[in-house]
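Q: Entry one of two.
A:
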Amino acid sequence: MSESVTNWAGNVVFGARRLHHPASAGEVRALVAAGGPLRVLGSGHSFNRMADTTGDLVSLAGLPRVFEIAPDRASVRVDGGMRYGELAARLQQEGLAVHNMASLPHISVAGAVATATHGSGVRNANLATAVRGLELIDGRGETVTLTRDDPDLAGAVVGLGAPGVVTALTLDVVPAFELRQYVYDDVPRASIEGRLGEMLADGYSVSLFTDWTGLDANMAWLKRSAPMSGPWFGARQADGPRHPVPGMPAQNSTDQSGEPGPWHTRLPHFRMEFTPSAGEELQSEYHVAAADGLAAIDAVASIRERVATVLQVCEIRAIAADRLWLSPNYERDSIALHFTWIADTDAVLPVVAEVERVLAPLDPRPHWGKVFTMAPSSVRAAFPRFADFADLVRRYDPAGTFRNEWLATILD
């Protein structure tokens, strides 16, 4: 490539020899048929080298937009380059919605699904669980269509880009709905200790934020249908809009007035119309069983002084169980601890390893798109269907067209 290409955070400089912008699925097939190594870039919001390659890097952003609502209005088919913000706006015009969204609406649907990215809510499973159909180009350059009738779908959806290039997805949709968003400051540690499950269930989506300088949580963000007023588990309602990271401009955040608004303007933390921060951060995230949520918080609290030195903010939220093989929520309701670190890899990685050490007794599962240092054997052991996934990858990509160093380390 004539110029370097980085991920959104800038901590990964891709080593690809060429960057392609195919304008059709046929062009993607031709690229795959030419042989690898080949990886798909997505929207670049992964913080590790998952998308890196020494061969060809492919962006699907130039594919023709596909937006096809099924006759029964229960699903929508979209192209592999569409982002959630665009999808949400088009669904809203049709009176439809997806069940949840991630913090950022700027991410691609295919990339979010491939990494089991999620929003929050004790009754809300991650974004990949909405996939009822997947169209991909496998390592032989052949188009494969999977539906829920095919047992391979549960393995291919959270696929890390390993089974093939996803050119289209079919997603479950629901009728459009409205939510209100509220922010509360200073959530007492005593409330978290005694009523964590109740807190995280007190809304469609609930997030606690802490900088780990103390044992209280700095903020709680609640997205819910019913209005609320007064204190919340001992916390007080914020006196104005907030950004999850203290000191950052609140105008980038979604409406927190408590006024009802369309689902896609409340579920993300950030507005689609504002470009996200310049990426001056690294991120890690670990999922534990919901029953171990407080134990995970206590584990991190035991090293909070060290965590706080390199942390911008930590978000704590719940995600419902699913049956997707590489989902961190596979067969267990989960609580996730998400760390937004400073943009200093050398300073952050030793702390990430320390977080993993204290969480290890709780069998944490990492978010695939974030920074983690867990040994590959530990990562494989964390996912009960990992061996089945490795077999699926060998069937779909026998020549290793989509394999890179990151994948080889995880798979082997």
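Q: Entry two of two.
A:
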Amino acid sequence: MHPTLAADLDQLPELLQSVRDFAARELSGLGERPVATAAKAPDAGPLPVAGVGAQGALERFAERWEPGFSGSAGPRYLGFVTGGATPAALTGDWLTGAYDQNGSSGGGSTADALERETLDWLRELFGLGEAHRGAFVSGATMSNTVGLAVAREWLGERRGVSVSREGVAALGPVHVLSGSPHSSVTKALSFLGVGRDRLRPVPLLGGAREAVDVGRLAEALEALDGEPAVVVANAGTVNTVDFDDLRAIAALKERYDFWLHVDAAFGAFAALSPAHAPLVDGLDAADSICVDLHKWLNVPYDAAVQFTRRQDLQVRVFHNESPYLGVPTGTPAFLHLTPENSRRLRALATWFSLTAYGREGHAEIVERCVALARRLGEGISAVPGLRLSAPVHLNVVCFTLADDPTPERLEALAGAVAGSGEAFLTPTVLHGTPALRAAFSNWRTTEADTDRVRDALARAVRGLSTAGGV
């Protein structure tokens, strides 16, 4: 064994303690760490030849790279829809690395059984029935991709071909309908060989709504004259967290032949709140479902889950044909259900967090985030120079400048807030108007944090107005 590696093995308990102390110091100051940083990255260094050992690597990281890391795990990082890592989830994630289980199959370990237990818990958490089977994947993009891959195979089944065997060219024209699809949906269609341009937008409800007009969706399905289709519904759009009427869409199956895929990346968590659970009424009727766990469940990157009613088709798409892996029978190993053969045990962090805090603890996070989003929405409405772009439906506040909102002015506003280190927000466009989004999903966020974000926005608006930027 290389002497440096051998020395690290001999000192492993001390090394782990050193890392533990380092991480504890970082996390204890997370609330005051600059949420975003403009620090210049260090110049790239040469590949180490001999190496400096684990403790030396930790010291070099602390010196060269740590200062440029953002506070994205903290309470005022409101960009995208980014959770943090609950203490229990972080515990599970550290142990995931320590045990280093390959979660692809049984392989002499109970790791796959733990994943199945966790999937059962998640299925119950979101109100899904026994017909839905799931698997962990890396994120919402991969979850949507897996769901749409199964939908593609279903289309082939309807037309008497096997896409997994004959290729997408044997499928013929593909019809994909959606109102406000996330960008990962078109990315998935490109990846799957269906093509981005096969997505046909369906008109939305009026006003600031992002929900599909179910009547217009019915007309689009009628126009297909019996051709099978894929409908991508939304349970929580990224701009305003609007929800399609899932129950009404599912009812259209009585008249039309389509696969219903629901992108519920973070909107599925509305099921945890009695006040908001009606928003996901009908989710159980979906043929495939995307849920992202490193958002509102607050487990570390990367973790998402994918559910489908047709696991037989999923196996047909993803099964690994190899003598040493065998033929998938009975309960298929996970390597037959996702694009990955090798995969870390992503389920462990989720298992820890659900075991530690249960339904009630995670429901509290959801309801608190919703209350904080509304608090910020009310605060923004009172800031001169800002206005809400849409009502606050759930956990995202979409807002813009009151006068002449151009992309340049919104970028300057977001840059000023990020430059203050107080918060981080991401830009968007809602119905043609540039805007900013503040997404609440971090378990650490408090009312005091929310007020600091409001105040940072107010200062930024005043500062840019004085400078002639707004």
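A: Comment on entry two: Residues 101-343 form a domain with the Aspartate Aminotransferase; domain 2 fold (CATH 3.40.640.10). The longest strand covers residues 433-439.
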